[in-house]
Each structure stands twice: as C-alpha cells, then as structure tokens.
Amino acid sequence: MALKEQNHLFLDLDRASFLSEDIPSLTLKIRDEIKAVCQFFLEAIPGATLLLTGSLSVGEGKISRTKDRISIRSDYDMAVVMPSVRYAVPALLKKKISDFRRKISLSTCLEISLIWKLLLNTA
C-alpha cells in the first residue's frame, strides 16, 4: 500500500505480490486480470472506488498444483463503492457484468460486493 492522496491508500498493482509463493507468470496474470476488472467497473460506474479484499490483497493468495499446471485457488474479492444508488439497478449492472464476463476469461471466480457510498460511516 502507498499513500496516493491525503487519507487515501491504494494498492500499487505493478508492485503487489498477490500470492503466498513467488510465481512471476501467475502474478502477472493476476495483475492483468485485476486491472481489466478495475477498468470495467470504473467505466461502468463513474466515480466508483474499488477495494481488493481477501487473501490476494495481502499477498496470501493460494494456488493449486497438478502435474501439468498451477492455478489460482483464491477468488478475486472486490468491493465497489458506488457514488450514487442509481448505479445499483440490478438489471442494468447485471447485463454490463454479463457482457464483460463474455469478453474476458478470468483465472478464478470474481466476487463483487456493491456498496452505496452514503451508507458508509465516514465520521
């Protein structure tokens, strides 16, 4: 984590280590996939804030090994903080997410929590 602006932290995706083991090719794949997911949500929900949570956010992502391949066992757990409740219209957002999922193949599951900014306690 690095200080981006006063009172705002961000994860430097280019330097983050997502996995509990050092596997550069898999780390690069995760980085590219997270960037694509972030780009999608920032375009779909202008003014949104994205939070990567779970094991990948703290460098403890799990992997599975078979004889032929290594795969990600951890999910992409993300919270999307929406500036307005109008972006939470399920039918509209569900269609956008569905279209996005058809365009990109992710290595693992994507778990999204939508949060309306006004419901957050900012005091």
Description:
With 123 residues, this protein is an alpha+beta fold. The protein has a single domain (9-118), classed as Beta Polymerase, domain 2. 28% of the residues lie in helices and 26% in strands. It has a three-stranded mixed β-sheet with strand order 3-6-7, with helices on one face. Helix 2 (90-103) links the parallel strand 6 (76-82) and strand 7. It starts with a strand and ends in a 7-residue tail after the last strand. Residues 1-7 have low confidence and may be disordered.
Element layout with pairings:
Elements: E1 2-5, E2 8-10, H1 24-44, E3 49-53, E4 63-65, E5 70-72, E6 76-82, H2 90-103, E7 110-116
Parallel strand pairs: 6-7
Antiparallel strand pairs: 1-2, 3-6, 4-5
Quick overview:
With 123 residues, the protein is of the alpha+beta class. It is built from two helices and seven strands. The strands form three sheets. The chain has a three-stranded mixed sheet with strand order 3-6-7, with helices on one face.
Give the CATH topology. Beta Polymerase, domain 2
Mean pLDDT: 83
The sequence of SSEs as H and E is EEHEEEEHE
Q: Order of strands across the widest beta sheet?
A: 3-6-7
Cα Rg: 15 Å
Relative helix content: 25-40%
The total of beta strands comes to 7
Which structural class is indicated by helix and strand composition?
Answer: alpha+beta
Major β-sheet, in short? 3 strands, mixed
Q: What is the chains' assembly state?
A: single chain
The CATH class, by name, is: Alpha Beta
Question: Which descriptors would you attach to this protein?
Answer:
123 residues; alpha+beta; Beta Polymerase, domain 2; 3-stranded mixed sheet; two-stranded antiparallel ribbon; 28% helix; globular; disordered N terminus
